[in-house]
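Thread: DUF2851 domain-containing protein, structure

OP (GT): Posting the sequence first so everyone is looking at the same thing. Length is 425 residues per the record. Can we get the structure tokens written out before standup tomorrow? I want them in the notebook alongside the other entries.
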Amino acid sequence: MREDLLHFVWMYRKYPINKLETNSGESIIVESTGVHNHLSGPDFFNAKVELNGQLWAGNIEIHVKSSDWYAHNHQEDSKYDNVVLHVVWDDDVSVFRKDGTQIPTLSLKQYISLELLETYQSLFDLRNYKFINCEKEFIDVDDFLRNNWLDRLFVERLEEKSVFINHLLESTNNDWEQVLFLMLLKTFGSKINKDVFIELGKTIDFSIIRKLHQKPLELESLLLGQARLLDDDQVIDSYYQLLKKEYSYLKHKYQLNQPYKTPEFFRLRPSNFPTIRLAQLSAIYSTNNNLFHLIIEKDEPNISKIFNLGTSEFWETHYNFGKTSKKSVKKISNSFLDLLMINTIIPLKFCYQRYQGKENNESLFKMMMSIKKEDNSIVDNFRKLHVSIKDAKESQSYIQLYDKYCVKDKCLDCAVGASLMNIKV
């Protein structure tokens, strides 16, 4: 038995509502199951339960065994003083509050139907699936229900990304331009170098970036220097020496401290080398002033024009210092621009709309639907279930579904899983 099934049974009243009794024989009428709490404290807040004709308002705690109350030390926690009913599967011990009063207990073992238990068990039978628990039934779920759930998952994913953005806002005194700079560094750093790039950005007062607008050489030397990519005294490239000299001046002028770590090149494609990504970012900032407001005011096609820039001439024949390569313009690719939109621009727009109290999720949906779907193993596996994934909004929703629900066996918190349970019960 799993506790999440007991939560599901309680919340959706999968029990005979007119025949409930506590284990001591008191009649129970559930007027309100309460609000499901996913944080610390009792499992359901503000429930209303009638015991032997007496109405009680308070909280509900749910456990597999009554003794879990003591295993979790709830008797010592004042958050649980207002629990009016203990809902369990197996009532193995009596439970008392801190003041010594006994908490009424409802054991669901005798009330849950065998059919419901069998349906639930089938979801978690590891022999039946290769990808997700409900892969055999997933495509049969009502399209309207699934699509509404995907919309909620997309917003949920934006909300999760907002947590990081809000932390940055707190640390920068709500400087949206600086937050955009840090978020761009995070995306330009990719999985390998995102943390190093963010730390790099935090070592630079954004006022310096503003001062170096329309000064591409100085800005490029600043970013590469702070990334410790100009520290090698053995490199003899004339451009390298020019950048190094310029950075030495900026470092002294602005009293800059370099981060401890340097970016990685290992296992990266040349187009993703930190030298190229920082050169591209410096080109963007040396060309555009007040970048955040430019982005906020524009839609996706016009945003693409802002980022449709190359690098300084040196990088057309180099991926790193000290070694020439075949000449190519190092513009930001369409696929990378899609990543910028998904991971930086749209989450920032979402946060800024909330900051202004002008939420417009439909406009964000529209922007995401104009972006190609992502290609990864999660999307591919859902497509093998005969699911149609048309755009980035849907691929982001399915990634959220898999990462936050399927992998964690949170089927009963998922609209699809709950629907399957309801269909079969």
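GT: Both are above now. Quick notes for whoever picks this up: The chain is about 50% helix and 10% strand. The two ends are 17 Å apart (CA to CA).
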